């Protein structure tokens, strides 16, 4: 599959496994799972046929590892980023002391005043490393880096979850637990 097709398939899967499964006539099961055969049939019925080989290639080689198969290979899901309500079945975990969130510079004043919010998604997404967070933030303009005092927030009672692809998830983050990284000042 060429790069252009790869990106189109990945975006199509993101749209329907994270945001609009009902548009394809699908319902996400507990954990966000959907049967692979049902997904492929629904894609074909909606004039966007995807082969099993293409699906496997996108799951294996997506640079953000957005999707995964269950242990049987018969079900697929998006690891996080859902705007539809779904229980991913993740267990709360203690996060590292610090996590990172990249955002566009034009969002900074609001975030420092009101904190991080999931917006239309179910969770705020956090990264283990600065480079990943900055890359995410750069998608929407000049990136700035926020340090999240995750351990302090966890000790204050907030739950954290780690998705299968290593993205840390939590609910809204109060500005008291945020710090602008020195390279962003």
Structural summary, described in words:
This protein is α+β, with helices and mostly antiparallel strands. The strands form 3 sheets. It has a 3-stranded antiparallel sheet with strand order 1-3-2. A 3-stranded antiparallel sheet has the order 4-6-9. It has 2 domains: 3-78, Arc Repressor Mutant, subunit A; 99-184, ADP-ribosylation fold (Alpha-Beta Barrel), CATH 3.20.170. The protein has helices at 3-19, 36-45, 52-61, 108-114, 130-137, 150-155; strands at 34-35, 67-69, 75-78, 99-104, 124-126, 143-148, 160-162, 168-170, 178-180. The chain is globular and about 50 Å long. A hairpin with a 5-residue loop joins strand 2 (67-69) and strand 3 (75-78). The longest helix is centred in the N-terminal third of the chain and has 17 residues, at 3-19. The model has no long low-confidence stretch (mean pLDDT 93). It contains 6 helices and 9 strands; from the N terminus they run αβααβββαβαβαβββ. The termini are far apart. Keywords: NAD, Transferase. Removes the 2'-phosphate from RNA via an intermediate in which the phosphate is ADP-ribosylated by NAD followed by a presumed transesterification to release the RNA and generate ADP-ribose 1''-2''-cyclic phosphate (APPR>P). May function as an ADP-ribosylase. It comes from Herpetosiphon geysericola.
């Amino acid at each position: 599959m060429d790069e252009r097709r790869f990106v189109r398939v990945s975006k199509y899967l993101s749209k329907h496994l994270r945001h609009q499964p009902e548009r394809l006539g699908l319902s996400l099961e507990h954990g966000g799972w959907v049967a692979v055969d049902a997904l492929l049939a629904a894609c074909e019925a909606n004039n966007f046929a995807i082969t099993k080989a293409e699906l496997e290639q996108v799951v294996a080689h997506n640079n953000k590892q957005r999707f995964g198969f269950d242990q049987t290979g018969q079900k697929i899901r998006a690891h996080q980023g859902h705007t539809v309500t779904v229980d991913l079945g993740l267990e709360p975990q203690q996060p590292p002391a610090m996590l990172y969130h990249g955002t566009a510079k034009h969002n900074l004043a609001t975030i420092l005043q009101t904190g991080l919010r999931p917006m239309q998604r179910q969770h705020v997404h956090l990264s283990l490393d600065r480079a990943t967070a900055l890359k995410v933030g750069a998608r929407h303009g000049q990136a700035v880096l926020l340090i999240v005092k995750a351990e302090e927030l966890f000790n204050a009672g907030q739950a954290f979850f780690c998705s299968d692809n290593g993205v840390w998830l939590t609910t809204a983050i109060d500005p008291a637990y945020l710090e602008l990284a020195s390279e962003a000042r």
